[in-house]
Each structure stands twice: as C-alpha cells, then as structure tokens.
Amino acid sequence: MNFDESQVLLHGYLDGELDPAGSIAFEAHLASCKDCGKEFELYKDLGAAVRNTAEYFTAPLELRNAIVAQLRPSPGKAVWSPSRSPVWQVLVGAVAALLIATVGLNTMLTHRSAEDLIAQEVVASHARSLMANHLFDVVSTDRHTVKPWLDRNLDFAPTVVDFAKQDFALAGGRLDYLDDHQVAALVYRHRQHIVNVFIWPAADAGDSAQRWITQQGYNIAHWTESGMNYWVISDADRSGLNDFVGLLRGAAAHTPS
Fold it and tell me: Which residues, in sequence order, are bridge partners of residue 184?
C-alpha cells in the first residue's frame, strides 16, 4: 500500500466508509506503518476535539428579519410577498442558521488552530530539551535556588514549588521561548519520566479549566491561573499527570510570587 492509497483509506476508515475487508486491511497497515499510525491518531484527536467543542446556535429573529428585508423586491416590481410563503420562511431560516454556524465554526477553528500551534511548539521544546541535553540552565531541587534565578532572568515571577513528597521532584529550570514570549521552563522528575512545565504571563487574567491534548505520544495539559499561562507536557500517563496539574494549580492559587 503506497502513501496516496493510505491517505484515501485513512479518511474512509475514520468515517466508517470501508467495508469489513477494507477495514481489516487498513488496520493491518496501521500496525506496520508508524507514520500512518501517527497521522491516524492526529486526525482522530482532531475529530474528537471538534465534536467536543462545537457550539450550535439558533438564528435570532432580528437576523431573519434583516435578511428578509434585504431580499424583498423594490416597490412596484412584484406583488408576491416572501413572508407569505412557508417555503421561503424555511429557506430564510436555513440561510440564517448557516451564517451563524459558519461564524461559530470559524471562531472555534481559529481558537483550535492557535492552541494546536502552541501545542506543537511545546512538543518541539520538550523533545529538543531531551535530545540536546539542555534540560537545565539552573540545576537544583531547591525552589529557593531555582526561583531567584528565574526571577533575575525574566520580567515576571513564576511560582516554583517542589513536589518531591508527591513523587514529582523539582530538578531545575531554564529559559525557553514559546508563542513569541520568553518563558520559564520548570523541570520535574516523576519516576522514569521528565515533566516540563512552561509558564508565561497570560493576556487574559481570568482562570480557566485545564484542557488536554495528545500529540506525538505526549500528554499535554494547559490552563491559565493567577494571570499566568501553564503548559505541562510529559510521556507520563494522564492519570498521574492530572494529579500533578492539581498540585500546580493549588500552588499557583496559594503560594505568593
């Protein structure tokens, strides 16, 4: 099976359009092709994200009336009134609903695109720190060493806490660059896993619930807390990482900068 064939079958498989024999053949190909396997997971996650975040709207009466007013013929040119036609009313309502749905979808996709771009940067920074052996600019398990170093080198003061008792030991920190910002990168060790935490000031001071993304085998969580963006990434399992997110959120809410 060549690349072009696999692309056609991938979307058919995701949409449930393959017959049983085709599905079995494509699943066998997925098991043997890492590239197709990664692309399959990416599209599957994207589909789930769209389904979970899509919003549906009912066209307001004001929009329907505005569209009808624009479509009415000039005086003296016609005696037929669209407001008297049930078919026309349905058509106007459908057009209005489509316009609103398009605006909502464009807004959602713009947000998702920005989120996905930052997630890609986070994955790249995490992988680069492991491959280039540049996990630390300052190596220490003592927050009183790591935090002052970061404070001196940044124009904001990130919260730094050691969670060694909860099996997430602070190992050090470094400077990084994400989303056109210089950011603090805190490094934690959880058993055999490295956890990178990226922190930088948020444009919106409001707090938000964490959102989860999976990219290239990494679990990623992000949220805003106390005026800061937080992005956490690791190949550790999501359950343990979720506990760590809870620890970070508690620390950010209760620890002075």
Answer: 175, 199
Residue-level length of the chain: 257
Q: pTM for this one? A: 0.57
Tokens of 255: 């620890």
For helices 34-53 and 3-14, what crossing angle results, to 10°? 30
Return the HEC string of the chain. Answer: CCHHHHHHHHHHHHCCCCCHHHHHHHHHHHHHCHHHHHHHHHHHHHHHHHHHHCCCCCCCHHHHHHHHHHHCCCCCCCCCCHHHCHHHHHHHHHHHHHHHHHHHHHHHHHHHHHHHHHHHHHHHHHHHHHHCCCCCCEECCCHHHHHHHHHHHCCCCCCCCCEHHHCEEEEEEEEEEECCEEEEEEEEEECCEEEEEEEEECCCCCCCCCEEEEECCEEEEEEEECCEEEEEEECCCHHHHHHHHHHHHHHHHHCCC
pLDDT digits (tens, 9 = 90+) for 15-43: 777 777 777 777 888 788 887 788 778 77
Decide: 140 and 146 in contact? Cβ < 8 Å: yes
